[in-house]
Amino acid sequence: MPENYAKWTLDDVEQALLDNADFVEAQSLAKAKAFSSAAARWLIMRPTNASGDGRTVAFNVQQVMQMKQHAEEVIEQMTTGGVRFLGTRNFRG
Fold it and tell me: What global pTM score does this model have?
């Protein structure tokens, strides 16, 4: 990942989401924080929908927002001495 945030590309951000999406399974505070940060960047950088070449694509912003919120809940619980292991959630609507 780029050290200078101004140089992050959407591909970098999406790769960070994928790399850290297993924060619950890994029981990793670092991965939860990295996922939350990547999700925030993704929400800023990714449009709600895009069109071109006669195609329209919609992105599930709500799903990423929910996953970011879950990561923040995990971070809160892990840093306050709460539950150390959380079950997985189904984020698909």
Answer: 0.73
pLDDT tens by residue, 7-61 = 889 999 999 999 999 999 999 999 999 999 999 999 998 877 666 778 776 778 8
Helix 10-20 and helix 29-45, axial crossing angle in degrees, nearest 10: 150
| Amino acid sitting at position 22 | D
Tokens of 61: 């912003």
| CA-angle at 12, arms to 72 and 36, nearest 5° | 5
Q: Label residues 29-48 b or e (16+ Cβ within 10 Å = b).
A: eebbbbbbbbbbbbeeebee
